[in-house]
Write a structure and sequence with these properties.
With 200 residues, this protein is an alpha+beta fold. Helices cover 20% and strands 51% of the residues. It has two domains: 35 residues; 161 residues, no CATH class.
Length: 200
């Protein structure tokens, strides 16, 4: 009698353990699917997409004309009261983000005319992101996304550069630089106006 009781108890424990083992992965999987996703929203409250990271840079992946591109974001900055050392004090927003602007975009002709090109070194995250290379170029309050054509980078002669920090065109003698040819552009702030925010 005692042996029968022990045998029954062990069988019951074994069956419970085996059944629970099959259920655990299912429950974990379901819980993972229910986890909220941190996403980027524009100033109108429109959801832009989930936040992802490439090359230590945060941003979103957009699909533009059937082409996926990674667009980085950074914390919004404002110039605060001057301090004693630099006479300029940069303050960072706790909640607002903006599209991160690349240094600029190259052109084959002078005065920033003709075909545009993306500098390979101007968007380091493009080396890490498994999508089409692109760079956001800021001109005042407007940000335009330049998207590379479907071709390899090449050493290309260019004659001008639109510098975002100066918000102006810089012309120079033709010089060959490793570049991607631009295939299209996208009005980033026109579609997703700033300031941006990230929340669940």
């Amino acid at each position: 009698m005692r042996r029968s009781f022990l045998a029954g108890l062990l069988l019951s424990v074994a069956a419970t353990s085996y059944g629970g083992g099959n259920q655990a992965p299912h429950n974990d999987s379901r819980e993972r699917n229910d986890d909220p996703v941190l996403a980027l929203y524009d100033s109108n409250g429109t959801r832009v997409g989930p936040i992802v990271s490439y090359g230590y840079q945060d941003g979103v992946v957009l699909t533009i004309d059937h082409t996926p591109v990674f667009v980085p974001v950074v914390r919004a900055q404002v110039t605060g009261p001057p301090n004693d050392i630099t006479q300029q004090n940069i303050e960072y927003s706790a909640s607002q983000l903006v599209w991160m602007g690349a240094p600029g975009v190259y052109f084959d002709a002078s005065n920033c005319a003709g075909t545009s090109y993306l500098g390979v070194s101007d968007g380091f995250y493009n080396i890490y992101a498994p999508v089409r290379p692109s760079i956001p170029v800021r001109a005042g309050a407007n940000v335009t996304l330049y998207i590379a054509a479907d071709s390899a980078s090449a050493s290309t002669p260019v004659s001008s550069f639109f510098a975002t920090v100066l918000n102006s065109c810089q012309s120079f003698q033709p010089d060959s630089i490793e570049l991607w040819k631009s295939g299209s552009t996208f009005d980033l702030t026109g579609h997703y106006p700033e300031p941006l925010s990230a929340h669940y």
